[in-house]
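Bit of a strange request maybe. I'm writing a small parser for structure token strings and I need a real example to test against, not something I typed by hand. Could someone generate the tokens for this chain?
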Amino acid sequence: MSPQFLIFEILIFVLFFVCLNKAIKQGSSRVWEFLFSVIYGVFLEWMTIQQLSAYHYGQFAIMIDGAPLCIGMAWAVIIFSGMEYVKQLEIPGVARPFLIGFLALNMDLACDVIAIRQGFWTWAIPLNAQWFGVPWGNFWAWYIVVVSYSGLLYVFQTRGWRTSKNFLKRFGYVPLAGFLSIVILALTNYLFVYEIGADGISGLLSMGFLLQAGALIVIIFRPKVPGSAKIDLVSMSVPLVFHLYFNWIGFQNGYYREIPILGVVGLLMLFLGIFIHVYPAWKARKIQRSMII
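Reply from user aminoacidic:
Good idea to test on real output. This should exercise your parser:
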């Protein structure tokens, strides 16, 4: 196994425990949501491999029937990071999942193209097809996974299931959200692969329509920054580690030298990710200063 595989797994484990520590401080329900996200992540990877056979993984240290444990953990920290970030904003619950989905895509747009060249996983299309070897359907699925799972958690939280005295509601809403999200993913994957995204052009258009719809919802509800917003180091650490690691791989292994546009995308997503996480604190400080004046 390549040392870079092992480094990636170690980084994911570190991020996992950093996020877990923050979840513990928020109570048992948040811990349960976070831990179940790992099960959810591993299962959705296994299911997608079985359903579509569109990709397969390289050899990681801990594999569960072809699905690496670290990838399930990566899903958990990515979703956790996004849900923690939006706490810094004044944004209606209906729009939160759609913004979280874009935070996840900020990582995937840059990281996936390097991961496939490093052999972390292999798609069933050439490296020069679609998004530099990554199918458009991957971004479709990423967005749907993050939006549906986080959105369903918010729905059940809003309905009071997280704090319910009913045991089944209090602990059952998390796996129920995961199950419903998996159903949504399976149905939309089938729709994309066999109906609306069967080739590169239709796949790009379908993915574009999905993301435009999500962006429209976020724009309509216009997230606002409260004067109390601060930099959340935990939520920021997840995209920062992902971007720094895959940018390092891109430079170290010559992928950026071979295809310079990958370097442009990688660095752009890195700086965009930093800006997104720093902006609320900067804006809040500006608001505070204006109030003093």
